[in-house]
Design brief:
By secondary structure, the protein is mostly helical. The chain is 85% helix and 0% strand. Helix 6 packs antiparallel against helix 7. The protein is elongated.
Length: 231
């Protein structure tokens, strides 16, 4: 049974990587559609969500089948459980990409908001966190996963900055409120994408080291502060 389980786990790994690639592409396309006011690209992201949902269901069924058929233990069990969790997270990130794309369709028809905010930088940061969390999964790299967790504070700060700017802009000109709220929605979806990338990173740490760290985010910041201060 060992060889059969090994092949089954390898197949599962390939499936979750394919899903990861599709979700990364959806996020990339959604952000680009906002930046370039590209409605066609936004609609392409929306249309692609069905394939992501279908694959998520298939991966879940495969995980459950492996658990029932082989009753794995130790590393194999931890891998299948981790994939089962990450699978659901990836589907949720795909949904966030759709949210961004749908807002992009609206924003493409409106005058660009008068904001001093670098959406491109925030989009790149969130996409980088997602990409690195998935790289950490492929390489079973707990240190890279911890780096992703530390980066989340930067995206949170960008989200707060955007909220402050939108609030001030609505006070200046209430006629722009709907456009500004849609733009804020894009930023919040990016912040949520970064949060979910952190969730994947936490799962990778569990997979690599058997340690549950999702309630210890402060530990990452403390370690990072110590490194920066030369401690």
């Amino acid at each position: 049974m060992g060889k059969h389980l090994e092949r089954a786990v390898d197949h599962l790994k390939s499936r979750i990587l394919v899903l990861s690639a599709r979700v990364e592409e959806a996020v990339r396309g959604a952000v680009l559609s906002v930046e370039e006011r590209d409605t066609a690209l936004a609609l392409q992201v929306v249309d692609g969500d069905y394939a992501i949902d279908k694959m998520e269901v298939e991966v879940e069924e495969e995980c459950l089948q492996l658990l029932a058929l082989y009753q794995p233990v130790a590393v194999d069990l931890r891998f299948i459980i981790t994939v089962l969790k990450i699978n659901g997270v990836l589907e949720r990130i795909g949904d966030l990409a759709v949210n961004i794309a749908e807002r992009s369709v609206f924003l493409a028809e409106e005058r660009p908001p008068n904001l001093v905010f670098d959406l491109h930088a925030m989009g790149k940061k969130a996409q980088s966190m997602l990409s690195r969390s998935l790289d950490a999964l492929v390489r079973l790299d707990a240190q890279l996963a911890r780096d992703v967790c530390r980066a989340d504070d930067e995206v949170d700060a960008m989200n707060r900055e955007m909220y402050t700017q939108v609030k001030a802009a609505i006070r200046r000109d209430v006629s722009e409120a709907e456009t500004l709220i849609h733009f804020l929605g894009v930023v919040r979806d990016l912040e949520r994408t970064a949060d979910l990338a952190t969730t994947i990173a936490n799962d990778v740490i569990y997979l690599a080291e058997g340690e549950i760290v999702r309630h210890h985010a402060e530990d990452f910041r403390t370690a990072s502060d110590g490194e920066d201060s030369g401690a």
